[in-house]
Amino acid sequence: MTTERVVDDNVLLEGLRRGAPEAVESLFDRYHNRIFGLAMSILKNESDAEEAVQDVFLTVVRKANTFKGNSALYSWMYRICVNACLMRLRGKRRSETVSIEEFMPVFTEEGMHASLIDDWSKEVERKALEKELGQVIQRFTEDLSEKYRVVFVLSDVEGLSNEETAHILGLTVPAVKSRLHRARLYLRERLSGYLQEGKTGPQ
Amino acid sequence: MNCKELVYMLEDYIDGTMEEQLRRELSVHIEACEPCLNFLRTYEKTRILCRHIRPDEIPDELRKRLKTFVMEKVRERQRNIEKYLGEEARERLRQVEALLRAYAVNRLPPVVAALFQAHNDRCERCGAFLRSINGGKGPVEITGIPPDVEEHIVEFLDALPPGEATNLT
Ligand SMILES: [Zn+2]
Questions:
Q1: How distant is the Cα of B74 from the closest Cα of chain A, in angstroms?
Q2: Residue whose C-alpha is closest to residue A183's, from A98, A90, A63, A73
Q3: Fewer Cβ atoms within 10 A, N terminus or C terminus of chain B?
């Protein structure tokens, strides 16, 4: 976040505290893409995401008066958004979630890699593949339980620092790091499988 | 250090929070262990690929619908607040008028009368206005209270002990 943006946000907040509709409009224009993106990443469903975004903006308008400004506005909004999404997920029967354990690396008793580890990092550097892999990763994250998915989305997709993610989720930094690490181990393993399939499967 | 330990510490290694001694041990292991080197490279690559996925753009129609919804709710809320503030203002004016009417016919409770007199002796604006409404010499129509006088009287009412102000109305 640039300083300019922070200053802008403060002006915006003042307007929100007065309940000025123009301030709400600016807030919407400035943040709706990010908030919708975040809600989609967590909820993976457009109509659920729509409701979550509604909740976020109405909550911000209602609570602007009591928002102390200890954290940045966007960070506060992320927090509200994550909560709105988790509320929506709670009541839902989730489709079969893959156990993350199945995709953790395996080791021999001596602590050596028990499976073949290929280096595919150079192979995926082509631009065309990057887009495809983005979609593949999106699909794999759908199988992650929300415990891992939310941390992963905030840190690796939204690019927030571990401290910010911890603050937004009310977790400790070590807890964030550990979940993130497991989410990445899971994705690395699934990507390996995907790329392996591409090589050996029908052309 | 073995491969298993290395994998579990990879996060610290990559984000740079790993202690120097461990870092050296890890580097030594990686140099001698191809699977771990491959693991490190693909782990790091996974992280980079994730940074490049952007969530779907919001469809235009949905954007419009959302904005309309949010703005409609906000305007509705604003109208309610204004209505509430308007009612509050009218209620305050009623109280001010009640005090002035009671003053005009000498019906103020003694304590309130004394406090009110004290203010009016000190405050030129309120004093002048009260003389203009025929202070204490009979019932009058209370109209055209100057805003600053109304404000002073509201302050005066707010400072009264609980119950005294409501007794007037
Ligand atoms: Zn190794």
A1: 6
A2: A98
A3: C
